[in-house]
Amino acid sequence: MKECKVEQNKVNCNCTYEPCARKGICCECIRYHRQSGELPACYFPQDVERTYDRSVERFIQSYKGKKF
Length: 68
Description:
- The protein is an all-alpha fold and 68 residues long.
- It has helices at 6-12, 26-35, 46-49, 56-63.
């Protein structure tokens, strides 16, 4: 198994929840949010991430109608 590059991951992490112990440890972050029925911050645009609504419904609403 490869070693986790926590500091490198933190550079690209858009999570604004500062006391988060999982910041930069993507596998733990994804596991935590999926167990809660949510998606991690990196799935959301920055303005939506700041609301801390990490629901799947909010994710769909955030991208509905957008062209990629």
